[in-house]
Specification:
Blueprint (H helix, E strand, L loop, with lengths): L1 E6 L2 H13 L4 E5 L10 E6 L13 E8 L2 E7 L2
Antiparallel strand pairs: 1-3, 1-4, 2-3, 4-5
């Protein structure tokens, strides 16, 4: 399953990419897709199992979405 995480600031993107590396998740930084909005303009796209539960706490994390059939389904959004 493909997931996309967006952030309020670019440093959050960098930190989350390092988190993915430590978790052995295939991940890369990229521009935020046009259908999603982001304060910083960069995101991390990562692969994880369908039943993956993200255990990552950060005030920098804006939203995490799941990509299903080319559509983005929000699974987490900061308040």
């Amino acid at each position: 399953m493909i997931y996309v995480a967006t952030f309020f600031a670019h440093i959050g993107t960098i930190r989350f990419k390092k988190f993915c590396d430590r978790q052995n998740l295939k991940a890369h930084m990229m521009p935020v897709p046009r259908t999603l909005s982001s304060s910083c303009g960069t995101c991390v796209e990562f692969e994880a199992p369908d039943d993956y539960e993200l255990h990552y706490e950060s005030e920098e994390l804006e939203e995490v979405v799941k990509q299903i059939n080319g559509e983005y389904i929000s699974i987490y959004r900061a308040d």
